[in-house]
Amino acid sequence: MSKILFVMTGVDFWTLADGTKHPTGFWAEEAVAPYEAFKAAGHEIVVATPGGVVPTVDQGSLAPEVNGGQEGADRVAAALGSLTEIRTPIRLEDVALDAYDAVFYPGGHGPMEDLAVDATSGRLLIDTLDSGKPLAVVCHAPAALLAATRADGANAFGGYRVAAFSNVEETQAGLADKAKWLLETRLVEAGVDVRTGEPWAPHVVVDRNLVTGQNPASSAPLAAEVLKKLA
Fold first, then answer.
1. Tens digits of per-residue pLDDT, 154-197?
2. Are 14 and 22 in contact (CB under 8 A)?
3. Do 218 and 203 meet the contact criterion of CB atoms below 8 Å apart?
4. Quick one: which of 110, 129, 176, 212 is 20 to 30 A from 122 by CA?
5. What is the pTM of this model?
6. What is the dihedral of CA 4, 32, 104, 215, to 10 degrees?
7. In what helix (H) or strand (E) does residue 48 lie, and over which residues does it extend?
8. Taking Cα atoms as reference points, which of 134, 185, 189, 150 lies closest to residue 164?
């Protein structure tokens, strides 16, 4: 049995370019699908957030239209209720990497607000990358990679092949023109080698111990890659 750390956003909003706060949090499928896969394989899950706040689910991620219909929405909502660890997160500031075998960051727009500028998260990402332990990040959670800068100012993920929510997907979702910045653009500016797949289709990229997924549909395939590394 391995112990897997879920690092999740601690905010329930994303500040847009005009200063308004767009309600968000974490995306349900991106937590549920890996959680179910890891639990089914017998692994233990611990959730950490900045300050230890209970993470908020993006209500939009529970809608039928993003879950293949009402039946899918009901299943995700029910599964979310079984994620008891989400209700008792530890403080990200208290995390000791030695206690975990893998680290996973689910997305949602929340990480664009807090984890993208969280130095504690940035250090954890660097330490996990350097440790060789599996590090998995999906959808908008690669925003957290922007805070992973080394002493010389370079991004620790510079040159790594990474999948992340694409500018095309953000545009199709209707939020690109409202955002302060776009994830794909900012990652490329940081020196990350972003590899985009078809919009909304599963797309996972593995580069050394780093496993990344482009969108919610990539969550389950991403979890499968992590389980391979833990085997």
1. 999 999 999 999 999 999 999 999 999 999 999 999 999 999 99
2. yes
3. yes
4. 176
5. 0.98
6. 160
7. strand 44-49
8. 185
Which tens digits make up the pLDDT trace of 187-213? 999 999 999 999 999 999 999 999 999
pLDDT for 42: 97
pLDDT at 23: 98
Cα–Cα distance measured from residue 181 to residue 208, given in angstroms and rounded to the nearest whole number: 28
- Tokens 């660097």: give the residue: 126
HEC profile of 172-205: HCCCHHHCCCCHHHHHHHCCCEECCCCCCCCCEE
* pLDDT recorded at residue 145: 98
Report the SS3 class of residue 5.
Answer: strand
Output the six-digit token pair for 114. 């807090």
The residue among 127, 128, 197, 112 whose CA lies nearest residue 162 is: 197
- Tokens 């549920």 locate to 32
The pLDDT score that the predictor gives to residue 74 is 97
Q: Residue 45 is encoded by which pair of tokens?
A: 């899950």
- Which pLDDT score, from 0 to 100, does residue 47 have? 98
> Would you call 113 exposed, middle or buried from its count of C-beta atoms within 10 A (0-12, 13-18, 19+)?
buried
Radius of gyration in angstroms for the set of CA atoms belonging to the chain, rounded to a whole number:
16
- DSSP-derived secondary structure for 79-122: HHHT-GGGGSPEEGGG--GGG-SEEEE--SSHHHHTGGG-HHHH
pLDDT beneath 70, residues of the chain: none
- DSSP assignments along 22-42, one per residue: EE--B-HHHHHHHHHHHHHTT
Chain centre to alpha carbon of residue 82:
19
| Rounded Cα–Cα distance for residues 120 and 134 (Å) | 19
